[in-house]
Amino acid sequence: MIILGYWNLRGYAQPIRLLLEYLQVDYKEKLYNQDGEEWLNVDKQQLKTNFPNLPYIIDGDIVVTESKVIPIYLAKKFKNYELIGQNPDGSFNLNEITFLQILEILKELRDSLLNSAKVPSFKEEKDQIFNEKFNITFEKIKKQLGENKYLLGNLSFIDFYFYEVLKFFQFFYPKLSIFTDYIDRIENIPQIKNYLETKENKIFILDRMKSYFYY
Fold first, then answer.
1. CATH 1.20.1050.130 residue ranges in the chain?
2. CATH: 3.90.1200.10, 1.20.1050.130, 3.40.50.410, 3.30.470.30. Which one for 2-83?
3. Which CATH number fits domain 95-189: 3.40.50.150, 3.40.228.10, 3.90.550.10, 1.20.1050.10?
4. Which Gene Ontology terms describe the biological processes this protein takes part in (predicted)?
5. Any residues with CB less than 8 A from the CB of 4 and at least 6 apart, and which?
6. Which of 10, 37, 83, 106 has a CA between 20 and 30 Å from the CA of residue 98?
7. pLDDT recorded at residue 199
8. Rounded CA gap, 161 and 105, in Å?
9. Quick one: 70 exposed, middle or buried, by C-beta within 10 A (0-12, 13-18, 19+)?
């Protein structure tokens, strides 16, 4: 059984959770409290890797860290290469480059939103910030998506990542109506729908974040 370790929140682990659910992988989670004591003083020291970090997965004797690396490992392990932009047989495809580009763009978009929302003035200025800052990136993503169902044409990990970014934006901008069909498409993937109904809303609800941000 695969073990996914992370803080007791959504964060960088949430798209990985969606990927594991999509792959129907048998896994369990090791969730760390925000004080960090167990992670910093115990598990980080004992994790069998030269690069201990959160999130991590433990798969038997294999330890993989870093949120951008874990999905690559999982896609290759379960031979679902299209999830990382490769051809079905694992050979190179230009989508593999686009995959990495979009993943970096989405991470920057997510981090920029969360960092902005920690500033007291965000609540009053968030619409202006969206128009001047975030919307530029959304327009690029909209162009990439085009008439396709998913960002690379076929479903890939970056769709789970983008879905999570969109959920954050919905949290801070509840009146925002963008990519609604795309969100519905992800949420109606059978494995994801089951996860949302049985697990996510009981553990990783966004309302738990309210005390950390100005929204």
1. 2-83
2. 1.20.1050.130
3. 1.20.1050.10
4. glutathione metabolic process
5. 13, 16, 17, 20, 27, 28, 29, 30, 55, 56, 57
6. 10
7. 84
8. 11
9. buried
The letter for the amino acid at 9 is: L
Q: What is the dihedral of CA 166, 169, 174, 180, to 10 degrees?
A: -20
Neighbouring C-alpha atoms within 13 Å toward the C-beta of 215: 18
pLDDT for position 206: 83
The reported pTM is 0.96
Residue 50 pLDDT: 97
Per-residue pLDDT, 195: 94
Q: What is the pLDDT of residue 212?
A: 83
